[in-house]
Specification:
Length: about 180
């Protein structure tokens, strides 16, 4: 009888260990959502800077608009999310592993951008809580460089055939 109990305890401990290992693996690969906009929404940029992603789809964030702004660390304006109660910022929601989001921040946005949670609306009308990167510190309106502007327009067209490029041009007109 003691051997049966011991075998049962060992089996239970082994199962618990397997469950814990599976949970830890899932947690390290769990999917997070990133709302990307401007030139940074390009699939090739995200793939290069994050080391890949699981999926990407068009999305909008209501109550914000895209503006070209600069902080003390830039000469030209870069795309930034700014509050606008009537605004709609077009971009894309990328689903990726946590370590890929960390890689993005380290390789491309370290010390320049801060994370901000946003509620992004997908094409099917559903909403997802996503991370967006916005300029760190005080920002002021500034014109982007021509190559940056062209990349922003191309990226907007990649996900939003209707209105994406127009939103970028409106941001330029506001400057």
């Amino acid at each position: 009888m003691d051997w049966v109990r011991l075998a049962f305890i060992i089996l239970c401990a082994a199962c618990a260990g397997l469950l814990l290992m599976a949970f830890l693996h899932i947690d390290s690969r769990s999917s997070v959502a990133l709302f990307a906009y401007g030139p940074s929404a390009s699939k090739s940029t995200i793939a290069k800077k994050a080391g890949g992603f699981d999926s990407a789809e068009p999305a909008v964030v209501e109550g914000y608009r895209i503006a070209f702004q600069t902080s003390k660390k830039t000469e030209f304006g870069v795309a930034n999310l700014v509050p606008d109660e009537n605004g709609i910022a077009r971009g894309a929601v990328y689903r990726m592993a946590k370590h890929q989001l960390e890689a993005l921040q380290k390789s491309h946005w370290a010390g320049f951008w801060r994370r901000m949670p946003v509620k992004a609306k997908l094409a099917d009308g559903s909403e997802v809580l996503a991370t967006a990167f916005v300029l760190e510190g005080e920002a002021a309106d500034a014109l982007p460089s021509r190559p940056y502007l062209e990349a922003a327009i191309e990226s907007a067209r990649e996900f939003h055939k209707d209105g994406g490029a127009e939103e970028i041009l409106q941001a330029i007109r506001r400057n």
